[in-house]
Design goal:
two-stranded antiparallel sheet, alpha/beta, five-stranded mixed beta sheet
Length: 235
């Protein structure tokens, strides 16, 4: 069983014990939860928590901020009804990089991403454009984000108008108003991007690999341990 854990950790270095237990069961490796935790602890394979913070939001600007539709009770019942967007900081050995993400709120799948050495709107909007290109339905779609200058800008808002997407934004500085996007950022950085990239090129490669593993391989507890691709395709 340790060999199984070591193999899976080569692909998903910080995957937790509960998800490992589910994957083991799929491979007919039956072990109780308490025994698995004891086994991981004995081999120093428990994953420690890590916390870091780097401000990526500038909400002091002249652009219009849209109301918070999520807070007012938006009911999400399938994929491509609500997308959440955010920007996260990713340091490299040669400088700063930033990852812009667009995530489907129902399936938790990352549907668009962009890696760049700046947080300009022209870069951030590429994640949204990628998500729109891969969109499978033409139903009503809400895009939710914080009130950062990139999301409020006329350049970004033009994409909403062009594709008939409704804009929603947090109405304060509480990060929990965009909690899902923040959580996806944390999973990507704390479970997959655990080694510092050398440069922007290296960062782009690592993020692409991490997003693919996250979408296609990682079982999600809130989705009854299905992968995000499985849930997204099912709608």
């Amino acid at each position: 069983m340790i060999e199984f854990v070591q193999f899976e950790r080569m692909i998903q270095p910080r995957i937790g014990a509960r998800k490992l237990k589910y994957l083991m069961q799929n491979c007919e490796l039956n072990i109780g939860r308490d025994r698995l935790f004891k086994l991981l602890r004995g081999h120093r394979l428990l994953v420690p928590t890590r916390r870091a913070y780097h401000k990526t939001t500038n909400s002091h600007h002249r652009f219009h901020c849209h109301p918070n539709l999520v807070k007012s009770g938006l009911n999400v019942t399938k994929a491509e009804q609500l997308w959440v967007a955010d920007i996260t900081y990713l340091p490299t050995h040669s400088g700063e990089t930033y990852v812009s993400l667009v995530t489907d709120a129902y399936s938790r799948k990352i549907v668009g991403y962009q890696v760049d050495d700046n947080m300009k709107t022209s870069s951030v909007k590429q994640a949204f454009r990628q998500a729109l290109r891969n969109r499978q339905s033409s139903g009503h779609l809400v895009h939710h984000s914080d009130r950062g200058i990139q999301y409020c800008s006329a350049e970004y808002q033009a994409l909403h108008h062009r594709h008939g997407v409704t804009c929603s934004m947090t109405d304060g500085y509480d990060c929990y108003q965009n909690a899902l996007a923040e959580r996806i950022n944390g999973i990507l950085k704390n479970e997959y991007l655990i080694s510092k990239p050398n440069d922007l090129t290296d960062a782009k490669r690592m993020v692409a690999e991490s997003v693919a593993i996250y979408n296609q391989r990682r079982p999600h507890m809130a989705l009854k341990y299905k992968t995000l691709d499985e849930v997204h395709r099912a709608f």
